[in-house]
Structure formats: structure tokens, C-alpha cells
Amino acid sequence: MEPIEIKLKSHVQVAIARVQDLAVESLLALDSKIILHGGTAIWRCYKGKRFSYDIDIYVSKSQREKIYKELTWELSKRNLSMNYNAMTENVISVFNNEAKAKLEMMINARIKSITKEYERADGSFMFVNTLTADALINEKIKAYESRRYERDLYDIYHLVSTQEISKKTRNALISFINKMQPPIDKDSLSSIVYEGAIPNYNNLVDELKRKLSVS
After folding, report:
1. What's the CA gap between 30 and 187, in Å, rounded?
2. Predicted local confidence at residue 89, as pLDDT
3. Which terminus, N or C, of the chain has the lesser number of Cβ atoms within 10 Å?
4. What digits encode the pLDDT tens for the residues 57-85?
5. What would the CATH number be for the domain defined by 4-131?
6. Mean pLDDT across the stretch 39-45?
7. Which of these, 35, 56, 66, 69, lies nearest to 155 by C-alpha position?
8. Closest to 140 in 3D by CA, of 208, 91, 197
9. Could you give the CA distance from residue 206 to residue 199 in angstroms, rounded to a whole number?
10. d(C-alpha 111, C-alpha 117), whole Å
């Protein structure tokens, strides 16, 4: 199987993906209980087929403080640096001479996680804590409802197509589809979906309805 970095659409995406890998390694070296979620979790842990720019993690307040105090050292071992703005204390930029990745922290000390393999850009793997497919789908439903980005709908489609989902999540999806509004960034997937034909909004809706048996 070809590694991710062979499939990506640009050298910039490859460089960002490599920085992401080193950043995740650094975070786990600091605290192995940090939880990865969002688009990058779907991409790396659930064999997604679209590039994701940001690293989203759930942390406790104490974990966040530890990241502020000690992450610089872990990053430096991997030739990375970081900076953050006090005005946006939950967002950190991680970078080297080649690329920059955004790390966004959300405070949630009680969220449940599972352990899954994370695929690095070079095709190797490491274990990370992440969310179940059901939790990620529900997260993406909320994301789409708040910002209406086509990539969130694509991520939902991917998880529904590849994972077993609960009846509760299926019902939430049916309710979501029945009241869903079109994305504000139609036809935005061409630069980030790197395998197969590029679906449009109607393709995604039709396939979701078919898979969920929605008329």
C-alpha cells in the first residue's frame, strides 16, 4: 500500500503532513493520554482520503498547561518550533523550515476515547487516543451545522461508508440530512480529496441517503 505522502496533491501538503506527524509524536511523548479528534483523526485513524490541515486535540486544563510549559522541548528534539498568541490561548502554531501546522486544543477532561493506529505520512503507524466513529460523526454534524463546510459532509460520508454506526447515530444523521442546508464552499474538495473521483454536494447527499435508506 502506498504511503500517504505519495498520494497527496502538493509538496506543501506533504510537508504539512510530516510536521503534523512530528507534532503528534511530541504531544504523545509529553502525555500519552491526549485525545486526537476532528478531520485529521478521521484522515489518519480511519483511513480518510482527504488532506486535513489542523491537529485538533482534547485536553484537560492541566494537560494544556503542561503543553505550554514543556512542548517546546519535545518539539525541539524533532527540529520543530512553536509559537502562540495570548489572545488565542488554545491555538499553537508548530513549524519548521518546510511547513507550519495549527494545533488547536479544546478543554474536555471527561470525553471518552479509544486507542487506534495513526498512519504517518511515510506509511508507518503509531497508537493514539481518538474518538469512536459515532462520536466523530456527531462532532462533524455539529461542525457542518455551525459552518457548512463541504469537507465536514465528506468526512461524514466517509465514516458512514466505512464504519459500523449505532442506531442513535443513524437517527441523528437522518434528522441532519432532512434539514441540511447546502455548503457555503461548494466544489472545495478538489484540492484536498486525493483518491478517487471528487464528489460534489449532491453526490454526497444522494449517497448518504442511499446508505441510510432515506427517501
Report:
1. 39
2. 81
3. C
4. 999 999 999 999 999 999 999 999 999 87
5. 3.10.450.620
6. 99
7. 56
8. 208
9. 10
10. 19
Examine the pLDDT at 185 and tell me if it is beyond 80: yes
In the numeric block, which cell numbers belong to residue 40? 485529521
Q: How do beta strands 54-59 and 35-37 pair?
A: antiparallel
Q: Is the pLDDT of residue 44 over 70?
A: yes
Q: How far apart (Å, rounded) are the C-alpha atoms in residues 202 and 187?
A: 11
Grid coordinates representing 53?
A: 490541515
Q: All 3 cell numbers of residue 212?
A: 441510510
Select from 82, 105, 80 the least CA-distant residue to 93. 82
Place of cell 437517527: 171
Q: Domain coordinates of the chain in residue numbers?
A: 4-131, 134-212
Phi, then psi, of 196 in degrees rounded to 5: 85, 180
Quote the pTM value. 0.95
- Give the amino acid at 50: R
* All three cell numbers of 129: 487516543
pLDDT of residue 215: 67
